[in-house]
Each structure stands twice: as C-alpha cells, then as structure tokens.
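Figure 2 data, in text form.
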Amino acid sequence: MKVISYNLRKHRAAGELAALVEAHAVDVLCLQEADTRDLPAEIAGLRLADATQRNRLGLAVYYRANTFQAQEVRAIGLKKSLHDYVLKPAEERMLGVRLRDIDHGREIIVASFHAAPLTALNSLRRHQIRTALSALQDLGPGLPALMVGDYNYPVFKENLGQKVRDQGYELTLSDARTYTRYRFFRGHYDFATSNGFDIAHIRTLPQGLSDHLPILITADVSSRRPPAVV
C-alpha cells in the first residue's frame, strides 16, 4: 500500500495532487491544511472518504475505490493550544477512516493528523498524539492503524518515539527533512505512527508550492502484529 501525506500550506499546493497520485500509484492520500470547500470528490482515481467540517483549514482522506471500501469515518477534536483559541484554524485535528480491502476482506485504519503549531508545547502535542491514537483503536479495535501527517515535532523525537512505543505504536521518519521554509525550524515535521504495519520506507518527495514536502509511505499489513496498549 502506498500512502502520500501532504500539508498543502493553506491549500496552495492542491493543484499538484493529481500528478502526485498518478506518478506514484498512490492508494491513499492524506491531506492537511486543505480548503475542504474546494476539494473534488475524486483525484486521479481516488475517492474522497471525507473531510473535516469545522476547520478553517481542514483534513481530508482519499482512497482508491477499486481497492478499498470506506466502512466508517471519524473526525475528532483534540486538546487546544492558545493558537487554536485565538485564531481558530483547526477544530478537528484527526480524521480516521476504516477501510476494507475488497480482494482480501481485511480491514485497516488510515488517518490524517495535524498537530498544534510550534507556538504550543511539545507536551500538548504529545497529548494530542496520544488521544488521536487511542481514538483510532475505538474506530476499529485491534485493527492495523497508520496515522500520517504534520506532527509539528522537529526536535526531541526520541522522547516522542518512546511515548508512542509505550502506547503500542511505532514512529517512522522519512529519508529527508520535510520542512524547509525557515532556517532555524527546518527538519522532520511530517511522519508516521503505526501499529500492525510493516513500513518498508518513507520517502520525502520534491518540494512544490507548500512549505512542507509531501511524504510517500510504502507499507503492508504485518503478519505478526503486537496488540495495542490501551
């Protein structure tokens, strides 16, 4: 399964999506900072599962309709930062979709995630990540889950990785940094947390109109999946 995650930077990079999907034979597309009022029902053969409704800049998940069926969708709000209270950019920061593989009959969960910006503390982002991962298990108890997106967590990822492992998930970075706009804030912002998936690799794709670079995740359902920690 191939998944692309892309922060569109206030929808500026939306015109690049069809070419990205076609060039990389993508199965699932997870978006952040999308103008959900301007999203098409399909992008290069991928169908819109759903998009957040209460965000000024929202999340969306697309899936390949001849491979998967969308069974259930859930958007959740997470603990707010001061930035959220003042500017109100995002009421819902996680959008999860339970997908059924048409050929194999198995179900998986894929989610798009956007953590609070750098003006918030890492402790708040860890709280958001922990809550989002727990919500994925509620969406499909025991199912393999993959959450990708903009984690806004460029430093101290070792600590985050341990917290994620304590919850039964693995944190996987891409092969190159994903944010380059400001010299002192460059680094890995966009990555994946997963349970029950073997991540073959995550590749950072060339930069387009966004200040974030898209990432391409290649993964498969693990044959031996540890249970999630509740």
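Caption note: The longest strand covers residues 68-76.
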